[in-house]
TrEMBL record:
Lineage: Eukaryota, Viridiplantae, Streptophyta, Embryophyta, Tracheophyta
SUPFAM superfamilies given in the database record: Homeodomain-like
Single Gene Ontology MF annotation: DNA binding
Species the sequence originates in: Ilex paraguariensis (yerba mate)
The UniProt record lists the keyword Nucleus: yes
A single Gene Ontology CC term: nucleus
UniProt name for this protein: Transcription factor RAX2
SMART domains, sorted: SANT
Compartment annotation: Nucleus
Domain Myb-like: 9-62, 63-113
InterPro entries: Homeodomain-like_sf, Myb_dom, SANT/Myb
Amino acid sequence: MGRAPCCDKANVKKGPWSPEEDAKLKEFIEKYGTGGNWIALPQKAGLKRCGKSCRLRWLNYLRPNIRHGEFSDAEDRVICTLYANIGSRWSIIAAQLPGRTDNDIKNYWNTKLKKKLMAMAVTSNQRKPPPFQSPLQAIPSQSPTFSSAPPLYREFSSYNYTPSKSLTGLEPLSITPNLWNTNNGNNSFVTSYSVLQSPEGLVSPMQYYPVKDNLLMFGGTEASCSSSDGSCSQISYGKEIKQEDMGALHSYYLSNGLVENQKFMLDYGSNNEVGDHPSAWTDQNPNGYFGNSQLQYDLEQVKQLISSTNGCNNSFFFSDENKTQERPMYYH
DNA sequence: AATACTGCCAACCGCGCCGTT
DNA sequence: GAACGGCGCGGTTGGCAGTAT
């Protein structure tokens, strides 16, 4: 049975909002609130709009303290950090940036930030990146030297990995620090890692950071998402990773100058308590272990991550002279 | 000056989740 | 437990504006 439409499509106005409609909606909500019912709101407010449209207009444009326009470098860092950890969970990312909407961040990422990072990845590949400056670390050229090689690394190493299907030149990273190290001001650095390859040796159909010509690529064509709601994270196929293995991995990255110190966090991506739905993952992963790890990502870690970016003194991001200026947008 | 191309972003759409009945 | 209704999310689209040819 199909879902009933949320409103009478024939009798609702679509398209850009006029200043008059904005005023009506704003006035009504400021006076009466939403009443917890967006569907009924437009009629009460005298608007020929779908409730969802009203909600969107309010949340993305009319509600107080909305900020449009230029994103600061700090905001860039937060967005990149979180994107690297949790993927395109724009609402969660937006929650960490007061005044920003998920839509704004999504647009900003898709149109500017992603390109900016890719350009920087190219730049950082041309000259050997000093530690703690680039969020996109190059694959270390030498083999890891674990005292006891972690099974995870052996099994998932991308160095000897041969994809079982064509990847159009894009190769997955198996394990990589997925964000630059951030200094939280207390001289403790936070680095997280992602496992980016399935236990079956298949490339994750989810988002991962492919490598092409030794460059980490953001948003490559292989970064398609097969989850039903499109919410991707780095890890589609999980594998249990023991604490001691993580320790070894951390030591490895430490010895290769890829992480600074003290805190090591493994990002299991999705399958967490912030709105994902494990059943969808399970369907896609009949063989692999998934979730239920004590190392699952949770919101507290994100918060910690965010706070750790404050006072970050790395100079990876530069000013973007093309940043957009705030401008009201009305149509008629 | 006209046209084509590109970037940008507000708005739409479909779907999953969740609370209620 | 099933059906329903509403909310929220993320992906996509449409169209304006700016730039290039």
